[in-house]
Design goal:
The protein has about 100 residues and is α+β, with helices and mostly antiparallel strands. It has 3 helices and 4 strands. The protein has helices at about 10-25, 65-75, 80-85; strands spanning about 5, 25-30, 35-40, 45. The strands form 2 sheets. A two-stranded parallel ribbon has the order 1-4. The chain starts with a strand and ends in a 22-residue tail after the last helix.
Length: about 100
């Protein structure tokens, strides 16, 4: 197993893990027609735990929505019933106003 990477922020972790999967992938998978590369057993620590939420200047910082969105993705949901309560603008991304196609999960 690899040693835990020490990183400065979630954004930095995201980039580092993308780089790791791109350069040192252990497995290639094809789940539901989506090719992906995997590295098993990776972990990371944040040097400053206060940097555990991602921040994009364009999106601003809405911790309530970020938490709700994480739970929504982890639950494998695509419908707008739950997530729409936390962000009205997310409905603009839906063709029919009921669910999102091609969401992260």
């Amino acid at each position: 197993m690899l040693a835990a990477l020490l990183l400065g922020s979630v954004g930095g972790a995201y980039l580092a893990l993308l780089r790791l999967a791109g350069e040192q992938a252990e497995y290639g998978i094809d789940a539901c027609g989506n090719a992906a590369r995997e590295v098993i057993g990776v972990s990371f620590r944040l040097a400053d735990p206060r940097q555990r939420l991602p921040y994009l200047a364009k999106r601003g910082r809405n911790r309530v929505f970020q938490s709700a969105e994480a739970l929504w993705h982890l639950a494998g949901r695509r419908d707008l019933g739950m997530i729409g309560r936390y962000s009205a603008s997310v409905r603009d991304c839906s063709a029919g106003g009921i669910r999102l196609g091609g969401s992260a999960y």
